[in-house]
């Protein structure tokens, strides 16, 4: 999931440099959503891992 967030971020940067503002904004939004989903799943998996140890 983090890989796809980085891919969309690179697409947004390239589109922004080339002047495609709509595509850049959409790609940046998708990258942001994927990144926050990745962080949420990371925190959930860490909590579950700590609970299973105890």
The profile of the biggest β sheet is:
none
Q: How widely separated are the two ends?
A: 29 Å
What radius of gyration results from the CA coordinates?
15 Å
What is the string of SSEs from the N terminus onward? Answer: HH
Shape: rod-shaped
Mean pLDDT value: 93
Helical segment count:
2
- Tally of individual domains: 1
In what range is the share of β-strand residues?
under 5%
Fraction of residues in H or I helices: over 70%
The number of E-state strands comes to 0
Query: What class, by secondary structure content?
Result: mainly alpha
Low-confidence stretches: none
Structure description:
By secondary structure, the protein is mainly alpha-helical. The chain has one domain (2-53). The chain has helices at residues 2-18, 21-53. Helix 1 (2-18) runs antiparallel to helix 2 (21-53). The mean pLDDT is 93.
Q: What's a quick, concise take on this entry?
A:
The protein has 54 residues and is mainly α. The chain has helices at 2-18, 21-53.
List keywords for this structure.
2 helices; 54 residues; mainly alpha
Q: How are the secondary structure elements laid out?
A:
Layout: H1 2-18, H2 21-53
Helix pairs in contact: 1-2
